[in-house]
Every structure is written in C-alpha cells, then in structure tokens.
C-alpha cells in the first residue's frame, strides 16, 4: 500500500489534455484549436523577431551577473517598465514629472511566475490579510481561476458573464448580480481585455459603470491582464479599463496580474508581475509594508521569479528601437488573428451554415466561443480530427489559409 492511495482524483487540465490528444492523433488533416498559443500561418510557434534580437543582444553582452539571483521582489527596472506598460505613467510625464511620480508611488509591483503566479500571489495575499467574504468569478472564465482561489481557500461565487443568445458580454446580468449580492471586501475577477474563453468584452461605458459599482460597494477589483497588446494590437487600448479606474476613481484599491506569455510569445519563460494599486489617500507607509508582505510570501514559495525572460522584456521595453519593433510584432499577430476570424466567418456564410456567425468577428483576442454544443464538439473531434475545448472555445490562431475551409466544412457538418 501507499500513503498516497487515499488521494482524491484530480481531473486533468482541459487545454493541456486536449493538446496531448491532438499530438497523439496521426491523421494528417488534424487541426489544433485547443490551447491558447499563437501560431503562424504555417501552424508553427513564433519566437517574436524582437525577442530574438533582444536575446542576441543579451548573449553578446555576456554580463557576468546574468545568472545571479534577482532580488526577491524581482528586477527593479523590469518592474518599472512593466508597471508603465499597464498604467501608462509615461503619458503623464509630458505634463508634469511630479504627477507621473506620484502615480508611480501608488503602485506596488513584484515580479511573478507569469500571469498564473501573479493571480496566485494576489489571491494568497488577499486571502491571508484582507479576508474577502468571497471572490466573484465570471461564468465562464479561464478555468485556472477556480483552482487558484480554491488553493487560497476563499469562497467562490459566480456572476453571469456571457449571454449565449446575443453571444456577447452579459452586462445586465453582471451588474444586477454584483449590485444585489456583492459585499464590501469581496473580490471580483475581471479580464482586463480579450476575455478568455468568450472573446467578449465590456464596452468603455460598461467598464465605467462596473468601476463605479466597485467604488460604491467597496468591492476589490482583481484584473487579469494576459493579453495586453495582443488583443487589439494597441497596448494602451487593451489597458483602458485599468487606466480608467486608476486615474479616474483614484481611491479604489485593486490588483493587476500581468502576463508576458502571449504578447511577447514567452510562454515557457514565465514572465509576469503583480501590481497592487493603492488609493491616492493611502498612508505613506502602506506601500513598503505591502511589498514586504508580498516578498515574504514569495520567499517562502520559491524565493524569486526567474530572470531570463524578464531580461528579454526589460531589454525590449527599455529600448525605443526595440519597443517599436515589438509593436510591429504585436500587429503581425493581432492582424493574422483578425484575418482568420474573417476567413472563418466568410467560409461559413459561403456554405450557408445554419446559425448566425457574426460573433466570430465581433469577439476579440485569441479565442471565440464558437457556439457548438458539447456533443457537436465531440463529433467534430471524432469525425474531423479538429480539437477544441468542450465548451466550444476555439483558439483562432490554430486557423490558417490551409485549414480554414476544412474547419468551416466540419463545423457545417456537425451543426446540420
Ligand atoms: N489569465 C488568463 C485569462 C489566461 O488566459 C492565461 C493564459 O492562458 C493566464 C492568465 C496566464 O498565463 P501565464 O501563466 O502563461 O502567464
């Protein structure tokens, strides 16, 4: 016998399980629309050109410190560039250096093991110190939110995020649920842009009302920012909701879990940051003690985040020239995704596939909730070797000129 024989069974993580099934399939026509990673029009991963350039620069610099420990907080220059990208402090520097500096002082940042680590660290800090009554999770959401908040032992409740009739964000349901049931000190998970899995986002007007609601009720917003710049090609636009609440409702305190997996294509390097935005009225000693608490948690868990990927991001964001190239690479990715949305839509319209497919081009980011039922998803995988999540979430970047017609025909086949 083993002392582990009583362990409860844990289901496999769906995106990684679907990815494994795809890899094992020997059919040459197979298509992977499961996992959320960028693919080129040849179906290959894409190390960003700007990342390769930065890697070369770092390799040639051959700095003797390059494998040293980072500080527990992480790399200070990386963190300041990362925070700037989220909050746009640089935009205020023109009018007043002091104004920009005051804003920087309101944000406490720590390097994390990518976006997942940032979500996890933020959840742990809030659970231990703020003791939220519950966390409001959008239904549906990135499935890992459930695991993360489970591990933090915070009770979970759901708000209805998606309206399957209009195939759009369910603003009324969200607003009604939070305004009726959420209490002060509850946390609400908000996808800052390109909601995973639906690709449906609030409008700016809706964001304003949600932000105001959080302010009035004392709800703690927790932004998950995994697709900044990747969604629209414009890093500023994709951070609009966060910047609005930070600048216009400057007493609301909130968290941002920032990932560089998608927008730098650094998935396996685990680059990210957690930013805690403080009220403009916060006493001055709060930020150093908050940072000390975050560092304490990180030290006990894994001492510090890895440095390799953060060096790359720091090199790119810190150089005017490389930053420009990064924006070009972002455009390359977001435009290809947009083209594929239109291509899939056009093919389905051409086939006269029953149903309304406008949501494919209305939704944004890496994913679309295509609108297949669970049994239609099983059928498309069995009959056509096309892999996607059982919810019907598809990763658009798995589409390309070679397979989009095949995928459209398969969708047509299973919905008829
Ligand atoms: N949050 C959301 C909504 C995501 O979709 C992802 C990745 O798929 C992440 C966070 C975190 O990813 P990572 O840990 O690779 O940064």
Automatic annotation (TrEMBL):
<dbReference type="Pfam" id="PF00155">
    <property type="entry name" value="Aminotran_1_2"/>
</dbReference>
<keyword id="KW-0663">Pyridoxal phosphate</keyword>
<comment type="similarity">
    <text>Belongs to the class-I pyridoxal-phosphate-dependent aminotransferase family.</text>
</comment>
<dbReference type="InterPro" id="IPR015424">
    <property type="entry name" value="PyrdxlP-dep_Trfase"/>
</dbReference>
<dbReference type="InterPro" id="IPR000796">
    <property type="entry name" value="Asp_trans"/>
</dbReference>
<dbReference type="InterPro" id="IPR004838">
    <property type="entry name" value="NHTrfase_class1_PyrdxlP-BS"/>
</dbReference>
<keyword id="KW-0032">Aminotransferase</keyword>
<dbReference type="InterPro" id="IPR015421">
    <property type="entry name" value="PyrdxlP-dep_Trfase_major"/>
</dbReference>
<dbReference type="GO" id="GO:0005829">
    <property type="term" value="C:cytosol"/>
</dbReference>
<feature type="domain" description="Aminotransferase class I/classII large">
    <location>
        <begin position="29"/>
        <end position="411"/>
    </location>
</feature>
<dbReference type="GO" id="GO:0006532">
    <property type="term" value="P:aspartate biosynthetic process"/>
</dbReference>
<dbReference type="GO" id="GO:0030170">
    <property type="term" value="F:pyridoxal phosphate binding"/>
</dbReference>
<comment type="subunit">
    <text>Homodimer.</text>
</comment>
<dbReference type="InterPro" id="IPR015422">
    <property type="entry name" value="PyrdxlP-dep_Trfase_small"/>
</dbReference>
<dbReference type="GO" id="GO:0004069">
    <property type="term" value="F:L-aspartate:2-oxoglutarate aminotransferase activity"/>
</dbReference>
<protein>
    <recommendedName>
        <fullName>Aspartate aminotransferase</fullName>
        <ecNumber>2.6.1.1</ecNumber>
    </recommendedName>
</protein>
<dbReference type="InterPro" id="IPR004839">
    <property type="entry name" value="Aminotransferase_I/II_large"/>
</dbReference>
<keyword id="KW-0808">Transferase</keyword>
